[in-house]
């Protein structure tokens, strides 16, 4: 029986990579795959980014008709969810995080849970707006985590009870994405049959927090009226 020498053995894959078998090149997991091990902060942020990536993939690459398509009796649309989650991201990472007044682009946000989620923006404008706001939110959370970790107090809270910590804020945002990514699953399948738990491996995640802005990307409309940013949650204290 022949033996394999130490110099002929298949190299061990690097930590965080996977191999498809003998002779296969080691593969790194996709950017949206959470780490198998890590700190609480790394795991929470990675879980949130996975939901963001899955939602963005479900909404990606559609024309106005696709983004405006509805499922059954629901008035939800993928375009409406993009326009809803953009101010949610901005609100959580500014007002709820630090007390910073919400950007004036959301001055016309409609506090109406019955909004029909029908944006007027073009697909390019919707994608550019969502990507820009998510990138800014990531940078804010990264700076906050570096400064004080998950246990630091944030601006959001409940009257007569007190302020929440950053862990609670990020878990609330993760819950928001869990709900709307589920909506996006049904909506996208109804448009063109796209299904799947995670983005396709060949799909490229839109620019992240440290990426330069896309040259020539359409500017978001700062005067668009958008659906309510969870009005019950807005009742939480702002001071």
Structure commentary:
With about 240 residues, this protein is mostly helical. About 45% of the residues lie in helices and about 5% in strands. The protein has helices spanning about 40-60, 65, 80-100, 125-150, 165-190, 230-235; strands at about 155-160, 160-165. Strands 1-2 form a two-stranded antiparallel sheet. Strand 1 (about 155-160) and strand 2 (about 160-165) form a beta hairpin.
Helical run tally: 6
- Estimate what percentage of residues fall within beta strands: under 5%
Approximate shape? globular
Gyration radius, to the nearest Å? 21 Å
* Main beta sheet strand tally, sense and closure: 2 strands, antiparallel
Number of strands: 2
H/E topology pattern: HHHHEEHH
Helical residues, percent: 40-55%
Strand order of the largest sheet: 1-2
What structural class is derived from the secondary structure elements? mainly alpha
End-to-end Cα distance: 76 Å
Pick out the low-confidence regions. Answer: 13-25, 209-239
Average pLDDT rating: 78
